[in-house]
Amino acid sequence: MMEESVVIIRKLTKVIGGHTILNQIDLEVKPGRIYGIIGHNGSGKSMLFKAIAGYLRPTKGEVIVFGEKIGEKAKFPKHFGALIEHPGFLPQYSGMRNLKLLAAIKNEITDEEIKEAITQVGLDWQDKRPVKKYSLGMKQRLGIAQAIMEKPKLLILDEPMNGLDKQGVKLIHNLLRSLREQGVAILLASHNRDEIVQLSDEVYEMDRGMLSEVCEQESI
Amino acid sequence: MIRLLSYDFFALLSFRKLLVMILVFFLIGLATQKDVASMASIFNLEHNVADTLLFSFLGPDRSGFGMGLIKWFVIQVVLVYLVGKMLDQEIRNGFFYTIPRVGSLHLWLGSKLVSLFLFTLVYFLVGFGVVFLLSFYLNSFSIILSDFFHEMILQGQGKVKAGLFQLLFHNFILLWLTGFLSSLLQLLVTIISNRATVGTIFIIILHAVSGQAGSFSMEFTKWLPSNQGILMRHGLVDPFSDLTLSWSYTYLSVGVLVAVMVSFYYINQKELIDFSSNF
Predict the structure, then answer these.
(1) Between β-strands A34-38 and A202-207, what pairing exists: parallel, antiparallel or unpaired?
(2) Which residues of chain A make contact with B279, given a CB cutoff of 8 A?
(3) Gap between the Cα atoms of B176 and B186, Å rounded
(4) A215/B contact by beta carbon, under 8 A
(5) How far is residue B73 from each of residues A171, B47, B174, B232, measured CA to CA in Å?
(6) pLDDT by residue for chain A (220 residues), tens digit each?
(7) Interface predicted TM-score (ipTM)
(8) Which strand ranges, in their side-by-side order, compose the sheet holding A19-29?
(9) Is A75 on the interface with B (CB under 8 A)?
(10) Are residues A208 and A187 located together in one domain of the fold?
(11) Is position A220 within any domain?
(12) A57: nearest CB among B6, B89, B271
C-alpha cells in the first residue's frame, strides 16, 4: 500500500517586490524519511519552510499538509514542529519555564513529556538559569526541544546544527534518526552539504528559489 | 486564546519588570512629595494624602513645562519601553513558536490586544498603589481636596469644581485608556514596519510632541492621543480649557476601535507573516 504523503507541494511560486523567492517548486514528503535541502544563505530554503508552515501566501501553486491546503482549509498545519531562523524564547525565564508556557498554548502534553524533550537534546530540565544566559548552542538545543516536544508527525528544521559542538551535532543526528524510525517526516535545511548527505534519505539543492533533486542517498 | 494570553502576559510582566515599575513610581511619588511639601510650606497651607497622589498623575499643564511634564513623560516612556521589549521579543522570532500553536493569526493578534489592555491596567494600578502607599505614609489622611490643591491649581481664583474621588477616577481611567491606545498604536506601527524600535520611537515622539503641544496650540492639543490622558489639561481642572471628559472618552473609544480594526485588516492583508524578514 502506498504511504500517504505528509506534504505535497505543487508548482509553488512566490514573488515579493518583483523578486521571485520560490520558483515552481514541486515536492512530496513521505512519513519516516529525512529530506535534506542544501543551499547557501538567501537561496530560498527558509522561505520554502515558511510556506509549508503557513507564514507565506503562495503567488501561484499550492501547499498541502496532512491533506489540508494551507491558507484555505487550514491557515497553519497541524501536527508539526519547527525550528525556523534563530530560536526566540522569553529571555527572562528558564528553558523549562519557556517550554511549559509554549506547551500550555496547545495543552496537549504533560510536564514529563517536556522534561523528556529537554533531556533528549542534552539539556538539563532542572537548569534554573534564564535563557538569556544560555550559549548559542544551548538556545539551539532548546529550539529543537520545543520543535519535538509535542511529538509532531512533521518536523521542519532550518540550520538546526548552528552553534552546536561536535558532541551536540552527534546527539541531534542520533535524535533525528530515531525520530525517522518512529515515522516522523523530517525536512532539514543546511548550507553544510556533508551534514545533509550524511543524514538524509533524499537530498535537494535550492538555488535562487529553484529546487532540484541531487540524488538518492543510497547512490551518494 | 486564554492559554496564549497567559504566555503573552508572562512575556510582558516578569518579577524584574514589576520591580522596575515599583521603583519608577516610588521615585515619582517621592519627587512629587518633595515639591508638595516645599510649596505647601511656602504658602503656609495644609496638604494631605491626596495631593501627592494627584500631582503625581495629573500631568503637565498647558504650558508644557516643569516637573509635571517630566513626571508624565517618564511614566509614558517606561510603559512604551516595557511594551516595546515584549513586541521586540515576539517579532524577533517568538511568533514562529506561538502562531502555529494557536493556529490562527486572529487569535494571536487578539491575545496581544487583550494582554496589552490588561498590562496597561496593571501598570497604572501599580503606579497609583505605590504612590498612594508612599503618600499615606508621609501625609495626613483625608478624603477631601486640600486648600493647598485648590491654591496650586487655580491660584486663589476659587475652588476646583470636582471632588477628590471624581478626579482620581477620571485621572486613572483616562491614563489607562490613553496608555492602552498608545500601546495599540505601538503594536500597529511595529507590525507594519516589522520593527519594534520603529513602533517604540514613533510613540515616544508622539508623547513628546503632545507634551509640548499645549504651549503653541490648544486646538491642536485636543486632537493628539496622548493629551486625552492628561487631566490637568481638561476643563474639569483647568477652567480655561475646552478639552472635555466626554471628548476624551469618545476620542479614546473610537481610537481603540479604529486601531483594533486596522490591526486585524492589516494582518489579513500581510502576504508574508514574518516580522523578522526584511521583505
Answers:
(1) parallel
(2) 16-17, 21
(3) 15
(4) no
(5) 52, 25, 15, 14
(6) 456 899 999 999 999 888 899 999 999 999 999 999 998 888 899 899 999 998 888 999 999 999 989 876 667 888 899 998 777 789 889 999 999 999 999 999 999 999 999 999 999 999 999 999 999 999 999 999 999 999 999 999 999 998 899 999 999 999 999 999 999 999 999 888 888 998 999 999 999 999 988 865 544 4
(7) 0.85
(8) A19-29, A7-16, A60-65, A68-69
(9) yes
(10) yes
(11) no
(12) B271
Compute the distance between CA of residue A175 and CA of residue B90 in angstroms, rounded to an integer: 28
CB B78 within 8 A of CB B20: yes
Crossing angle (nearest 10°) for helices B105-138 and B67-89: 150
Q: Are residues A116 and A171 in the same domain?
A: no
Nearest partner of B168 among B125, B225, B118, B137, judged by Cα: B125
The residue among B202, B253, B208 whose CA lies nearest residue B226 is B208
> Which residue in the set A16, A74, A102 is minimally distant from B279, CB to CB?
A16
Euclidean distance between CA atoms B233 and B183, whole angstroms: 22
Domain residue limits, chain B: 2-269
**Does A101 lie in the same domain as A71?**
no
By Cβ distance, the residue of A21, A91, A104 closest to B6 is A104
- Do A108 and A203 lie in one domain? The reply is no
Contacts of B53 (CB under 8 A, 6+ apart): B128, B131, B132, B135, B168
Range(s) of the domain holding residue A133: 84-151
CATH number for the domain that contains residue A60: 3.40.50.300
Q: Write down the residue that cell numbers 548559542 correspond to.
A: A136
Distance CA A112, CA B34 (A): 55
Cα–Cα distance for residue pair B153/B93, rounded to 1 Å:
49
pTM summary value? 0.88
Three cell numbers written together for B216 = 503653541
Interface test with B, best of A55, A84, A92 (most B CBs within 10 A): A55
Helix (H), strand (E) counts: chain A: 6, 10
Beta strand A68-69 with A60-65 is antiparallel
